[in-house]
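Hi there,

I know you've been waiting on this one. I reran it after we fixed the sequence typo, so this is the corrected version. Both the input and the resulting structure follow.
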Amino acid sequence: MATTVLIGLLSLVGFLVLIFIGVPISFAMAISGIVGFIFLRSPAAAFSAFKEGVLLTFTSYTSCVVPMFIFMGDIATEAGIGDDLFDCFQALTGHRKAGLANAAQIVCAIFGAICGSSAATGAMMSRVAYPQMKRYGYSEELSTGCLAAGSGLASLIPPSLSLITYGICAETSIGKLFVGGILTGIVLMILFIITIKICCWIKPSLAPEKAKKATAKEKWRAIRKGGFIEIVLVFAIAMGGMFAGWFTPTEAGAIGCVGMLIISIIFKRFSMKVLLRALRNTLVMTGFIYCMLSCAKMMASMFTLSRIPTALAGYVAGLQINRVFIILVLTVIYLILGCFIDGVPLLLLTTPVFLPIVQAMGFDSVWYGCYMVVIICLGCITPPIGAMCYVVSGTTKAQLVTVFKGSLPFVISYVVCALLMALVPGIATWLPSLMY
């Protein structure tokens, strides 16, 4: 067993070396997994396992959920459906202190519910919300920081691509993960709003001006123009039907696609150009995720053969220490790895290794998936990777240092959310336990 574990560790080191010299992460996972598998079994067995992993990924019915929800989000993004959505909540909350920043958090959550992509949400909100906040004198730090942090809500609110990827990798119910992500996302959104309120209370100059209070007629007009009712209806039918057991996650994604196409037609945002761009983006993103999943399966198979997950789980279980401490240690590991590896690759790489440990400590796989996504989203607003900060900076043309500085208060929000989840696992598991 010691030899197999050593081979697994050397393969992991080889993977990290490949990453540092600039090899694409998917190729690094495939190379490390195949080489490790060769030493553990044989070349024929290694290439057979790799071929099987690719075929399973590209032909699995479960994997079909990925392009469905990606296409749904791309239609919304390309048709500009989120543009009017922010105007809707600006009319509802813009007259309050820091109302535009708070509205941005709500819209990030709602748009995330039809998009599932943090990057798309961050880019769209930066294009729509940032000019309005700048118009009313909001500081650049608050404006960009709240958008970088809020875009992470799309990774928790279903249909989250991160939760879908984790569910496929961990062989965990995607429906349960979606339900668990709802309350987790709402808690995180509330923490963001509280953070904004506290920051503006301490330093009122962050949000000096308020928008004019809209009349009831103006609010209703904004709601109708923003398509809020239609978007909620599509979400309720797609997600509600899935939660009720009427159809599978893949079927829910297909229904969501049709619903989003209908909304884009109703609001006269649909065109062949929009459709073709959405299809192209869907093909590119789906190919990327499928490639990552295929290569991750090879890496996971190698880890399983090396007995590393089993050895680690047995070792940790024998330590007789508080399970919350184990979670804190894993959190630190994620934060360190997050400095070098992006979100989805990190999720695919670590799940086969850490999930057995977490389950051995008595934590639920649904809870772990939601918790891990929160930690990965935290890494998306901290240097040096800070992917969401780069997206917001690139879209708004704000200095990257300014965006990172503005994101700092929201790091506390993420940490508080993670601590609450560790202390109260029901945040992610209560709703799934009622519905499944």
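Quick highlight: The mean pLDDT is 84.

Best,
R. S.
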